[in-house]
Design goal:
The chain is an alpha/beta fold and 191 residues long. It has helices at residues 22-35, 49-59, 85-95, 110-124, 138-149; strands at residues 2-7, 42-45, 65-68, 131-136, 166-171, 177-184.
């Protein structure tokens, strides 16, 4: 199985955090060009607008099953969705809890998000596809990378990816990693 992990393209901030910027739209177009001659057997995409907008140009070249799911979304921030990182960090400090323990109203804490990634990974192992594309978010992708590599959860901090970065994993018949790369951006370069 070959798995491509694509982080969504550059997004805005605050109220526009779920909308691609003009740079993000261009990143999505260049990514589609990179994937143009590749035929995926399945695409799994998060339900956030920024993930769907990133995938849209690629769909012009694909004829496969597409699944939109909350399973691959970023950590749900609940009442802090669309708020600044500063406001979120202040709420954590005021709570007296660690960042891993803090769970915003109607949201998830880091442990909840990691457990969701683990459940998705278990489902992923049952996928019967040759080439899979997953369009998601930095936190989810870093969690999934640690799971694919068999690393402890706290190693996820080493695998943060840039906007529209592609990570690739080739798994053998026993679902062990044969080859991989993480956070590739050269498809965004103009030649």
């Amino acid at each position: 199985m070959k798995i491509y992990l694509l982080r969504h393209a550059q997004r805005g901030h605050g109220e526009k955090q779920d909308t691609l910027t003009e740079i993000g739209k261009e990143q999505a177009r260049r990514t589609a060009e990179f994937f143009k001659n590749m035929q995926f057997n399945k695409i799994i995409c998060g339900t956030k607008k920024r993930a769907k907008e990133t995938l849209q140009p690629t769909l012009k070249h694909q004829k496969c099953h597409i699944e939109y799911t909350l399973d691959v979304n970023e950590q749900e921030l609940g009442i802090f969705e669309g708020k600044s990182a500063k406001e979120f960090k202040e709420a954590i400090e005021n709570s007296g809890l660690s960042e891993e323990e803090f769970r915003p109203e109607r949201g998830e804490n880091r442990k909840n998000a990691y457990e969701r990634a683990k459940r998705f990974y278990e489902k992923l192992k049952k996928e019967n596809v040759k080439i899979l594309l997953i369009v998601s978010h930095a936190g989810f992708i870093s969690d999934l990378i640690t799971l694919l590599l068999g690393l402890p959860e706290n190693e996820n901090i080493h695998f943060k990816t840039g906007f529209c970065a592609i990570s690739y994993f080739e798994l053998d018949e026993n679902l062990k990693v044969k080859d991989f790369y993480i956070g590739e951006l050269k498809h965004l370069a103009s030649y």
